[in-house]
Automatic annotation (TrEMBL):
PROSITE patterns: COMPLEX1_ND1_1 (PS00667), COMPLEX1_ND1_2 (PS00668). GO terms for cellular component: plasma membrane. It is found in: Cell membrane; Membrane. GO terms for molecular function: NADH dehydrogenase activity; oxidoreductase activity, acting on NAD(P)H, quinone or similar compound as acceptor; quinone binding. This is NADH-quinone oxidoreductase subunit H. It is a multi-pass membrane protein. It holds the Pfam family NADHdh. Keywords: Cell membrane, Membrane, NAD, Quinone, Translocase, Transmembrane, Transmembrane helix, Ubiquinone. Coiled coil: none annotated. The gene is nuoH. The chain crosses the membrane at residues 6-26, 76-99, 119-141, 162-184, 190-210, 239-261, 281-303, 323-342. PANTHER family: NADH DEHYDROGENASE SUBUNIT 1, NADH-UBIQUINONE OXIDOREDUCTASE CHAIN 1. GO terms for biological process: aerobic respiration.
């Protein structure tokens, strides 16, 4: 086994994991600042300049709070739930290409942990596992509100995974690949998939809101009905893990949407920039562009949360089953017809 290859992968995994945690931590700060801006307030402004140290203060608070486990809870499952939610949130980053390969001497270092040929299936598998952390935590709490929240989360995820999968089928018809690395590489310059699959992108984005339990699809955490949802009984860093997992899921969803539909690390004039900046700086510029796209999606997630009220549960199911799924099927049919006509002529 190539030791240098193993070291490269360990370093890349450590960097991605650290960036994921950092973005999740400061997403809580950005969430408050965006909400304050939209509501004509200041937001956090006490901990450090412009409140920039507020996430650190929140982290210290989480660590210092008393750890409480309800007497009637299933103790081991109660502890497993937050860890599983955090684990499934983090492993989704493994197949995302963060930039074009870097060339150092005679070594080509891909900025992707692994480029499996079924990367999209891997993402869907991780998304499907994510609900188990919520389900286990809600059930193990032995709280009726937590259990109702877990049931809501499971039914919501199942409902919207179908429409999300159907929206991806139309994309696969266009790209002829299930490898996220290949899909991103084929979007060179301005050949972004959103131009060929605008309806598919809208469907995928709406389903991403539902899969990450973000407003207006935050029914599992509906405070007015369920107190706090599946994490009502949680405190200290167990609660922190659930909150962190939501923001990491939002980060991964933004990265997947940017990769599949907005070219990932590709941008107009990329070839010229690579020739001018070299085999190391050039790919890192592409990585910077990719993160700008991710931050734009994260801002959109937050903007929607503080702009649109949440659905009622019957409206949520109606949208998923009676609107999004038929629309996704129609998109597949239209895409198939268009591709068949193009290939014929």
């Amino acid at each position: 086994m190539d030791i240098a290859f193993v070291i490269e992968k360990f370093v890349l995994v450590a960097i991605i994991f650290g960036i994921s945690l950092l973005i999740a931590m400061y997403s809580t700060y950005a969430e408050r600042k965006v909400a304050a801006f939209l509501q004509d307030r200041l937001g956090p402004d006490r901990a450090g300049p412009f409140g920039i140290l507020q996430p650190l203060a929140d982290g210290v608070k989480m660590f210092m709070k008393e750890e409480i486990i309800p007497s009637n809870a299933s103790k081991w499952l109660f502890m497993v739930g937050p860890g599983l939610a955090m684990l499934t949130a983090c492993i989704g980053t493994a197949v995302i290409p963060w930039g074009s390969p870097i060339t150092v001497g005679d070594r080509i270092i891909p900025l992707q942990v692994t480029d499996i040929n079924v990367g999209i299936l891997y993402i869907f598998g991780v998304v499907s596992l994510g609900v188990y952390g919520v389900m286990i935590g809600g059930w193990a709490s032995n709280n009726k509100y937590s259990l109702l929240s877990a049931i809501r989360a499971a039914s919501q995820n199942i409902s919207y995974e179908i429409a999300m999968g159907l929206s991806i089928i139309a994309l696969l018809l266009v790209t002829n690949s299930m490898s996220i690395g290949e899909i991103v590489a084929n979007q060179h310059g301005w050949r972004w998939n959103v131009l060929y699959q605008p309806v598919g992108f809208l469907l995928f984005m709406v389903c991403a809101f539902a899969e990450t339990n973000r407003a207006p699809f935050d029914l599992p955490e509906c405070e007015t009905e369920l107190i706090g949802g599946y994490h009502t009984e949680y405190s200290s860093m167990k609660l922190g893990f659930y909150l962190f997992a939501e923001y990491i899921n939002m980060f991964v969803s933004a990265a997947v949407m940017a990769s599949l539909y907005f070219g990932g690390y590709n941008y107009p004039g990329m070839d010229w920039v690579l020739t001018q900046t070299g085999p190391v700086i050039g790919p890192l510029i592409g990585t910077g562009v990719f993160f700008l796209k991710i931050f734009a999606f994260i801002f959109f997630f937050m903007w929607v949360r503080w702009t649109i009220p949440r659905f009622r549960y019957d409206q949520l199911m109606h949208l998923g089953w009676k609107i999004l799924i038929p629309l996704a099927i129609a998109n597949i049919i239209v895409t198939s017809i268009v591709i068949a006509v193009i290939e014929k002529f």
